[in-house]
Amino acid sequence: MKDDNGIPEPMVLLDGVELKLDSESGSVNILKGINLEIAAGETVSVVGPSGSGKTSMMMLIGGLERQTTGGIHVAGQDLSTLDEDGLARFRRDNVGIVFQNFHLVPTMNAMENVAIPVELAGLDNAFDRARAALESVELAHRLSHYPGQLSGGEQQRVALARAIVAEPRLILADEPTGNLDGSTGESVIELLFSLRADHGATLLLITHNPTIAERCGRVIDLQDGLIGSDRVVAA
Question: 3-state DSSP: the chain helix, strand, coil percent, rounded to 5?
Answer without folding.
Answer: 35, 30, 35
